[in-house]
Design a protein that fits this description.
With 353 residues, the protein is α/β, with parallel strands linked by helices. It is built from 13 helices and 13 strands. The chain is globular, with a radius of gyration of 20 Å.
Length: 353
């Protein structure tokens, strides 16, 4: 039997596989804690083995593998005079969190007022290379994914959404400067990750809403496509796959992603796109990951979950596909539904071959 790593690489390259690979995104502490208890898992690694997960490294909320940043702004929580609890990240973006800590909202964008030439961008931590290299060796039998900065989303946070959308329409050099700086950070992280031996470099940006794109395909092609092309070329040059993430409806730019060399596209939200149709249109040139909707997962009965998993594997498999929730599994999701998802997946992923 091939290793998880071999299985995932064959799936990405759309070659024959022994079974459909599995991955996991889940929110912590819940429902991850309850899922671990239900499976008698002593730690995260035990949980991943119980679910037969083929990936290690960057699994949102569960584990993070990447090249960190330093310089820029001092990171950490602080309290305003009125008692509001806030957090500042390395880019100087300040966020306020909801009472349950699950969601946050940007309340300060450093480049909404500061001159871009006075802004100090952080730098990748080169010492993190050794950490990634050791992780690669430790999990040699698994497909390892490393995270690189998502540059457009970061630009939105630094500039503020009102300002960045105005700059996009104007074609302002200020925006070009910020994007060049951020993509440079992403490229340096990606190069180190690939050289350290990760199988996939995860980047990309959310540009899709539920039924439309957040920016026009024309603006995306002008501002972002050439920069992603350079990123894809760099990742491939150093021996890794380019794993591109964007939530929501992004159908118009899927041919562009193929053209620039994206290897894996996630998450293909079934609430936003017909995943079977996307597979039929582009499955000979692009591999996919995701496709199990987390918006409906809390509302389904176990049999509904089983049916969705079976239908998704039939539509997306047997190769060129990794099955996982299309985003993090939410706390209100019944544990029985999560167990059904993976129990049925473990059965059907073999039958799909």
């Amino acid at each position: 039997m091939p290793s998880s790593r071999e299985r995932c690489i064959r799936a990405v390259e759309r070659e024959e596989v022994d079974m459909v690979p599995l991955s996991l995104w889940i929110e912590v502490p819940e429902p991850a804690g309850s899922l671990m208890a239900a499976l008698y898992a002593s730690d995260v690694e035990d949980l991943l083995k119980s679910l037969e997960i083929d990936y290690r490294g960057f699994l949102p909320n569960i584990s993070w593998l990447g090249i960190g940043l330093r310089g820029g702004y001092e990171e950490g929580f602080f309290t305003e005079v009125d008692g509001r609890r806030l957090y500042r990240n390395v880019f100087g973006v300040v966020s306020a969190f909801s009472s349950n800590g699950r969601t946050n909202m940007y309340v300060k964008h450093p480049l909404s007022e500061l001159n871009v030439k006075d802004y100090v961008f952080p730098e990748p931590r080169e010492e993190d290379f050794d950490k990634v290299e050791k992780f690669r060796k430790l999990y040699d039998d698994y497909c390892v994914i490393g995270y690189a900065l998502q540059p457009f989303e970061t630009a939105c946070a630094i500039l503020g959404y009102n300002k960045i959308f105005k700059l996009m329409v104007k074609g302002a050099m200020e925006l070009e400067y910020v994007l060049d700086k951020l993509f440079s950070i992403t490229e340096r992280q990606a190069k180190m990750l690939a050289e350290a031996g990760v199988d996939q470099v995860y980047s990309g940006d959310d540009v899709g809403a539920q039924t439309t794109m957040m920016i026009s395909p024309e603006l995306w092609r002008r501002l972002l496509k050439p920069r992603y092309k350079r990123l894809a070329d760099l990742i491939h040059k150093h021996g890794a796959f380019f794993h591109f993430h964007s939530d929501g409806w992004i159908e118009p730019i899927i041919p562009d992603l193929i053209e620039i060399g994206v290897d894996v596209l996630d998450p293909l939200q079934p609430e936003a796109m017909n995943v079977g149709r996307i597979k039929k249109l582009y499955g000979d040139r692009l591999s996919f990951e995701g496709c199990i909707g987390v918006q409906t997962l809390p509302l389904y009965k176990p049999q509904d979950v089983a049916t969705e998993v079976e239908n998704t594997i039939k539509a997306m498999g047997p190769t060129g596909f990794t099955l996982r929730p299309c985003h993090t599994i939410l706390p209100e999701t019944p544990i029985e539904n999560i167990l059904t998802l993976y129990n049925v997946a473990k059965k059907c992923r073999r039958l799909a071959h």
